[in-house]
Amino acid sequence: MAHSYRLLQHWNQWLTQYFLGEYLLQAERQTLAKLLQQHYGKHALLIGVPQQEVLLESTVIACHNILSPLIHSKDKASYIEGDLHELPILTGSMDLVILPHTLEFIDNPRQLLAEACRIIKPEGLIVVCGFNPLSWWGVKKIFANNHTIPWSGNFFPAGKIKNWLKLADFEMEIQRFTLFSPPTTTPNIYKNFNLFEKIGHSWFPFFGGVYVLLARAKVVPLTPIKLKWKQQLNHIRIPTTISGHIARSELK
To answer: Cys bridge to 56: 64, 122, 148, 164, which one at CB 3.0-4.6 A?
Structure first.
C-alpha cells in the first residue's frame, strides 16, 4: 500500500507540474463532456487524486465527490479520504463512478474495479480511463525510465478492463480513444504533431494514447417462483359469494 501511495502522490503532482499532464487532463475532460452530457442522476464519484477533480465538471450530475487515499490540503466537504481496498461507500448508492488511470497506480486494480462496480446503482455508469499500450504512449513506456510517472504505471489493454467489467455484470456501451500524438514533453514540438490528432480518429482510431470506456450496470431480472401445491384439493368447493371464503364440504 505504501508503494501505491507514493505512486499516486507523484501522479497527482505530474498532472499539474508538467505540460503533458495538463494536456492529458484537458483532453480527458473534453472527451468525458461529450460522453456524459445525456447521463443524469444524483451522485457522481471520482476515485483518484485531488488534481483530477476537474473531470467531475464534465457531468451534469449536481452532487460531486472525490475519493482518494491522499491527504488533501484544502478542507472540502466533497473530498473523501479513504482506503482503496474497501471503499467506504454504500452498495448501490452512486449513479456515476469515474476511474481515471487509478487502476494503473495501485497494487489491487481488479479488487478496486470490483469495489467501484459494487457501489453503482442498477443502470448506473462506470467510466474507466487508461493508457493504451498499443500507442505512442505504450512505445515510450518501453524505452522510458520505469521509475518516472506515468511510465511506472501498469498500462492495461482496453480488452482486459472490458473483460473485468463483463465479469462484474456490466455491459459496455461506448469506447473512445484520444491523444494520438507522440507524448513529447516540449509544448512547441508537441504542437507540430497536431496532424496526428486530426486524422487519428478516422485513420487509426484504436491507437490513441488514452482509452475511455463507459459501461452500464445490468439489471438482473427477477426469476418468477412457481409454487408447487402439495395439498390435495379434493372435497373443496368455492361458493359464488362475495366474501370469497373457501368452504370445505362434509365428507359423506
So the answer is: 64
